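Before we proceed, please read the two lines closing this message. Let me know whether the structure tokens fit the sequence:

…
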Amino acid sequence: MKLDSSVSAVVTGGASGLGAATARALAAQGVRVAIFDFNEEKGAQLARETGGVFCKVDVTSEDMVDAGFARARAAHGQERILVNCAGTGLAVKTASRDRKTGEATHFPLDAFDRIIQINLVGTFRCIAKSAQGMLSLDPLEHRERGAIVNTASAAAEDGQMGQAAYSASKAGVIGMTLPIARDLMSEGIRCNTILPGIFNTPLMQAAPDNVKAALAASVPFPKRFGAPEEFAQLALTMITNGYFNGEDVRLDGALRMAPR
């Protein structure tokens, strides 16, 4: 797919981190970008910077997702590109003991469900609604109508202690990538997923310096955090390379996460 001003895109979780880098990279190619995010201040600022449109969206809300797509399409027309970066995490052991009292507790199931709803169900909700809209588009060269890129995590394959909910949600994103690509193959819509390792996002920047140094040293090569722009570069490759379909690709400097 050729990227220019005739193409529009939606980036979920687009106000910061990996999503913001992807929104900027798409806008730099002339693409008209709509940013879905819950952070109104950062989202609106990035929309002004990129000449795009901000849509306040919680991906767990059917109504907000519908309203976001309606606003984006009113501003830019039907999107040909969807990049899903909205997500969250929580580190709690499946079952554990209180260090002081010895009391046994388990992972709160409402918190487990929340992670699944945001990372997995929210991703699929946006895919289904975007793909439905893409069916209305005229095909481009090679019968292509659109491209979808999702964000999973290296933790989907080697999750650490406390990551059962997060790993399950991201493994679900990987698991649905190929079936979605097959569902949409006759309509010329491709679907791929990126599995980032340790990236220099706002969440990571808030960690203590000693923690960041240890994490960076754990990456085989290069021994540093991934840059959001490197994630965006791979996302654009998945979008522009018409033979890239049904794949999940690790982007992690050969990192394989230790148990803790």
Observations:
- The two ends are 41 Å apart (CA to CA).
- Residues 127 and 148 are 7 Å apart (CA to CA).
